[in-house]
């Protein structure tokens, strides 16, 4: 089994592996974005945004199960990548690896008047999740328009009222600086709210020239 611990949600955190009924960590010798890509894919967390070293999500406990993991990036599970053997090297937890995955595999604006306006949705595994109005701001809207090649952000509106609509709600708030090239690269905060008063509607200026 594989999981990410101590992050902002199930798709970021310290990489932990269960072997022989015990959870342990992965040591950061040569930890690269290709290795992180396999972790994100295995957890159905979209693509890898960052591969991190030196216990960015705190030090774990238990054995360091894997060391010098070397993935090509297309393996289906992490331990199919080459490594030095289970528990072959005891590594201080100061070197535990971390991963930040996008958590979503696609981004779209739907139901607007143009291809460059509409409700913000992100694809989580096979389902589209709606982003709440309270979870994004203008800088985030700018990043969305930029990523979709839709020019500049013009406006961000409180979209339709949610009421009892049975739709998946995206559980993270985006806190973009504004210069990120992809929404997945923006800092985020987990925000467990079962309710969402309005969805977010973003209007971009249109296609970039």
Automatic annotation (TrEMBL):
GO biological process: zymogen activation
Entry keywords, A to Z: Disulfide bond, Glycoprotein, Repeat, Signal
Bridged cysteine pairs (disulfide): 27-91, 40-101, 71-81, 132-196, 176-186
Source superkingdom: Eukaryota
Keyword Signal: yes
GO function term, MF aspect, one: serine-type endopeptidase activity
Limits of the SRCR domain: 2-102, 107-205
Gene3D superfamilies: SRCR-like domain (3.10.250.10)
GO annotations of cellular component type: extracellular space; plasma membrane
InterPro entries registered for this protein in UniProt: SRCR (IPR001190), SRCR-like_dom_sf (IPR036772)
One Pfam family matching this protein: SRCR
Signal sequence bounds: none
Protein name: WC11 protein
Organism annotation: Hemiprocne comata
């Amino acid at each position: 089994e594989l999981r990410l611990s101590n992050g902002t949600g199930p798709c970021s955190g310290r990489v932990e592996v269960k072997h022989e009924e015990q959870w342990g960590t992965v040591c950061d010798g040569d930890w690269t974005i290709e290795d992180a890509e396999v972790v994100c894919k295995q957890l159905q967390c979209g693509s890898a945004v960052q591969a991190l070293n030196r216990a960015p999500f705190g030090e774990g406990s238990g054995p360091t199960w894997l060391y010098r993991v070397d993935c090509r990036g297309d393996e289906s599970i992490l331990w199919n990548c080459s490594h030095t053997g289970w528990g072959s090297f005891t590594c201080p937890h100061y070197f535990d690896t971390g991963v930040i995955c996008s958590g979503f595999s696609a981004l779209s604006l739907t139901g607007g008047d143009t291809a460059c306006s509409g409700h913000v949705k992100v694809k989580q595994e096979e389902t589209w999740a709606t982003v709440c109005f309270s979870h994004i701001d203008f800088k985030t809207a700018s990043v969305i328009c930029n990523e979709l090649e839709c020019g500049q952000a013009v406006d961000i509106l409180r979209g339709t009222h949610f009421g009892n609509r049975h739709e998946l709600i995206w559980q993270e708030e985006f806190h973009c600086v504004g210069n990120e090239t992809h929404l997945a690269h923006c800092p985020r905060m987990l925000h467990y709210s079962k309710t969402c008063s309005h969805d977010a509607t973003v209007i971009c200026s249109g296609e970039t020239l």
